[in-house]
Amino acid sequence: MSQGSTLWGGRFEEPPDEALWRFTVDTADRRLLLDDLRGSLAHVRMLGAVGLLSADEVARLLDGLTDLQGEAERGDFGILPGDEDVHSAVERRLGERIGPLAGKLHTGRSRNDQVCLDLRLYLRRAADRRVLGLRRLAAVLADQAEAAGDVLVPALTHLQPAQAVPLGQHLLAHAWMLLRDVERFREARARIDVSPLGAGAAGGSGLPLDPRRVAEDLGMAAIFDNSMDAVAARDFVSEYAFCCAQAMVHLSRLGEELVLWASEPFGWASYADRYTTGSSALPQKKNPDIAELARGKAASTIGDLCGLLALQKGLPLTYNRDLQEDKAAVFRADDALAGALDALSGMVASARFHPPAVSPWVTALDLAEVLVMRGLPFREAHGVVGALVTRLVGQGRSPADLQPAELEAAHPLFEGADLALAEPAGSVARRRTPGGGSMDSVRAQLGALRERLEATRS
Ligand code: ARG
Questions:
Q1: Strand, coil or helix: what is 221?
Q2: Which of 106, 150, 257, 434 is deepest in the core (most CB within 10 A)?
Q3: Is the CB–ligand 1 distance for residue 326 below 6 Å?
Q4: Ligand 1 in contact with 85 (CB < 6 A)?
Q5: Strands 160-166 and 222-223: what pairing?
């Protein structure tokens, strides 16, 4: 590298030191190459439209940039060690192809507004992809919930059996979380879809630029309201990372359950061989590594979000080089989510569910509720059933062994026939709460969830 290869060498009397170069040069931004070229094409068309470039200059610049797009798409756009960042690389390469006219590309533009535009274009597209991935996993969970039919599992609280529910109710709980992630990404996308081009270094330009035209050309919904905000703000980046982190936290909770379900004490589920891994030492092992890594990678995604917030905290307006660090963090968060969605969708689709029969203890609330229906205050009913449970547990018996006379003796409001309540399938059949754990509710949720997912397609 030499000072002549920087975009700013004219002001300097000696070339940059190697150590400065190694420390300041960005490589993470190479991913922005195609977006940088798209933004530059729109910028050139705008410069032509407002008369800052002649028709011939526009044509030559567009040809050159289009050639570079071809190179980038083929993967032969070489970024050199002397290129300070992707924007410098494009300007250098354009110069090599079309000569000194390349020097007009940066008219009315700064890398400060340019890098924001590139990142907004990148994240806008990434948001659309993550929406697809989240929707796919939610749909897989819905299909599994439907296929589960009337298979029951215990809903757990404190990891202890609480109430019997259809397995579908449990699987749909995860799907509803993912639906909100889909909606969150779409809402964040609307705030990303704003063009900062024209803000320049910080205060705009004296040239007759037309920022609205650039935004329209790039299909962006709006332009910046304040040039300093446009180049200094990175809330669109941290918000995107939050969407990733929250979704990863949801995938991590799903992952944790996939691990538990496949464990021997649970024995609820098994996954296809192609979605599990083996042990180098233990021949009998089949490990749910995808689920574990979804859980593990959520940790670094949370870290990336925290890093992005810390990056902005205390930073004076407007652009500071610190902000270069935003890209590696948000790309890492986005990659983690993309990978986890892809792998988990396959793994969950491949799952076979075979939970053991639900323990009858989960019907204790049903017995208490029958007393409530007959007028007993809930707190008293809770005490009556609690004492009955204590007695049975002490005798090593289960509710299934209970005799009608024993139940009647437990409280005068009990009738012997109430014993039928002490059965998980009956408990689920009696469940009334909309959205609760009954088969009717699961069927209704399947319809509602699929409709809400469909509505996020537009
Ligand atoms: N590589 C820089 C970044 O990502 C581009 C903007 C550089 N601007 C500047 N004034 N040095 O933030």
A1: coil
A2: 257
A3: no
A4: yes
A5: unpaired
What domains, with CATH codes, occur in the chain? 3-107 (1.10.275.10), 117-148+157-353 (1.20.200.10), 360-422 (1.10.40.30)
What is the tens place of the pLDDT at every residue in 253-289?
Answer: 999 999 999 999 999 999 999 999 888 888 888 899 9
Q: Cβ atoms within 10 A of the Cβ of 68, count?
A: 24
Q: Is the backbone peptide bond immediately before 301 cis, with ω within 30 degrees of 0?
A: no
Supply 114's token pair.
């340019």
**Helix, strand, or coil here: 427?**
helix
Q: Which residue has the tokens 């035209």?
A: 213
Indicate the pTM of the whole model.
0.95
The answer to whether residue 270 is catalytic is no
Residue with tokens 């809330």: 235
User: Catalytic one among 54, 279, 354, 398?
Assistant: 279
Would you call 359 a catalytic residue per the annotation? Answer: no
What is the per-residue pLDDT for 360?
Answer: 86
3-state secondary structure of 75: coil
Distance 117 CA to ligand 1 centre (A): 12
Cβ atoms of 356 and 267 closer than 8 Å: yes
Helix residue ranges, H only, 148-234: 167-192, 211-217, 227-232
Across the range 102-123, mean pLDDT stands at 98
Find the angle CA(316)-CA(320)-CA(323) to the nearest 5 degrees. 110
Long-range contacts of 395-402 (CB under 8 A, 24+ apart): 398/359, 398/360, 398/361, 399/360, 399/361, 399/363, 399/364, 400/360
Distance CA 193, CA 236 (A): 9
DSSP sequence for 308-361: HHHHHTTPPSS--GGGGGHHHHHHHHHHHHHHHHHHHHHHHHT-EE-PPPPPGG
Model pLDDT, residue 3: 40
CA 117 to CA 399: how far, in whole Å?
65
Give the residue-averaged pLDDT of 95-120.
97
User: CA 224, CA 231: separation in Å to the nearest integer?
Assistant: 9
Rounded to whole angstroms, the Cα distance separating 61 from 335 reads 33
Q: Whose CA is nearest to atom 3 of ligand 1?
A: 324
Helices and strands (H and E) in the chain: how many:
16, 6
155 sits in which H/E element: strand 152-157
Q: Relative to the CA of 84, which ligand 1 atom is closest?
A: 1
Given a cut of 80, whether residue 5 has pLDDT beyond it is no
Is any atom of ligand 1 closer than 6 Å to the C-beta of 414? no
